[in-house]
Design goal:
With 426 residues, the protein is mainly alpha-helical. It has three domains: 75 residues, Orthogonal Bundle (Fumarase C, Chain B, domain 1); 217 residues, Fumarase/aspartase (Central domain) (Fumarase C, Chain A, domain 2); 61 residues, Ribonucleotide Reductase Protein R1, domain 1, CATH 1.10.40.30. The chain is built from 17 helices and six strands. The strands form three sheets. A two-stranded antiparallel sheet has the order 1-2. Strands 3-4 form a two-stranded parallel sheet. The chain is elongated and about 105 Å long.
């Protein structure tokens, strides 16, 4: 990804556009075949020379075409014929954005595969679910990974749509009228670059395309932050159900040798903020003066390479976290039992309702015994079996059947099937 956004790569993309435009002109008979052959043979650039020229010319595309002319010779008069700078720069930018998107999608696919493996592996691993940060009811650890996979599939679709949105080129001139080129040049160049000609443009491609692209990147980054935040939360000392990988030679603190901090996940949460801030900038690039100003250009030179590179890096890092994540099964079990059975409160209440008790009455029985458990550090089971009203309706063996952790996972396989993952029976 870093190489894709280098000056060498950017100028190479510009050269692709320029040469294809020359080919198109040759198709129309406006460039002699021998001149086209010379252009294609001699066209080359030097990043250092372009930078040197730009110091005086104060225009990067002019510096680029000047350097081409130095290398091509007299036939360079046919290069950039009828084009404006943005015909080259914007069309080439679309090529780079599509290529960057392809790298991002490859990295995202690796993450999807890692999440699928973890989801299936922990499909029947019972873990406490939390709402408001408080113990609620048991869930499946596999469902956490499956949820993230499903969200990443939506991110994949958003990114694919956004990539198609920027898969557009324009060779329409200074204000988008094709006055000096006609439509054939644009059609030819775009087809060769696997782009679509913009149906209408000004001097530039409209920046809502780029805004949608960065929005999809920012949302994908937010999902990575969501995953990283959950890992960080579950790595807390008081919970410690899972943690990000920690290397054998890694140090967690300069002062405290015992520390194993979730530094990678913390970094990912911070980088997601950068992606969101870049989204604000790209949204502000949509409104420009008349047929174009260049207030967007300086912004894009930072946020487009940075955002694509950051998301690619973040995908690689969170994939590594998922692949190597450490699961502490003993802590998971201890946490399940931390409330001494209170997590079964709804199941027991519903069992009382099935016995014919009104819901309000059933709720009152469970609540008073649950509060007693919290106050006295006793189990919900022993309190219920000491409650005459409860004992008259449900016996100990029935209660034991109700208080089965695995009963909470009876529909997990169906959820997996809903998400397109088949599970082996048994």
């Amino acid at each position: 990804m870093r190489a894709l956004w280098s000056d060498e790569s950017r100028f190479a993309a510009w050269l692709e556009v320029e040469l294809l435009a020359c080919e198109a002109w040759a198709e129309l008979g406006r460039i002699p075949p021998e001149a086209l052959e010379c252009i294609k043979k001699k066209a080359s650039f030097s990043v250092e020379r372009i930078r040197e020229l730009e110091q005086d010319l104060r225009h990067d595309v002019v510096a680029f075409t000047t350097n081409l002319a130095e290398n091509i010779g007299p036939e360079s008069r046919f290069v950039h014929m009828g084009l404006t700078s943005s015909d080259v720069a914007d069309t080439a930018l679309s090529v780079l954005l599509v290529r960057a998107g392809s790298l991002i999608l490859d990295a995202l696919q690796e993450l999807l595969h890692a999440l699928e493996i973890r989801a299936l592996e922990h499909r029947q691993t019972v873990i406490i679910g939390r709402t408001h940060g408080i113990h609620a009811e048991p869930t499946s650890l596999g469902l956490k990974f499956l949820l993230w996979r499903e969200e990443m599939l939506r991110n994949k679709k958003r990114l694919e749509d956004a990539i198609e949105g920027v898969r557009a080129g324009k060779i329409s001139g200074a204000v988008g009228t094709y006055a000096h080129t006609g439509l054939f040049i644009e059609k030819y160049v775009c087809e060769k670059l696997y782009l679509r000609p913009a149906r209408i443009s000004t001097q530039i491609l409209q920046r809502d395309r780029h805004a949608a692209y960065i929005a999809a990147i920012a949302i994908a980054g937010a999902t990575i932050e969501k995953i990283a935040t959950e890992v960080r939360g579950l790595q807390r000392t008081e919970i410690r159900e899972m943690e990000e990988p920690f290397g054998k030679k890694q140090k967690g603190s300069s002062a405290m040798p015992h520390k194993r901090n979730p530094v990678v996940c913390e970094q990912l949460c911070g980088l997601a903020r950068v992606l969101r801030s870049n989204l604000i900038a790209v949204l502000e690039n949509i409104a420009l003066w008349h047929e174009r100003d260049i207030s967007h250009s300086s912004v894009e030179r930072i946020i487009l390479p940075d955002s694509t590179t950051l998301l690619h890096y973040m995908l690689k890092k969170i994939t590594w976290v998922i692949q190597e994540i450490v699961i502490h099964h003993e802590a998971i079990r201890e946490n399940l039992e931390k409330t001494r059975g209170l997590l079964f409160s709804q199941k027991v209440m519903l069992a009382l309702v099935e016995k014919g008790l009104a819901r309000e009455a059933a709720y009152a029985i469970i609540q008073r015994n649950a509060m007693k458990s919290l106050q006295d550090n006793t189990t919900l089971r022993e309190n219920l079996l000491s409650d005459p009203e409860f004992k008259s309706l449900i016996n100990p063996s029935e209660l034991d059947a109700i208080m089965d952790y695995r009963s909470f996972l009876s529909c997990v396989d169906d959820i997996f099937k809903n998400c397109g993952l088949e599970v082996e029976e048994g």
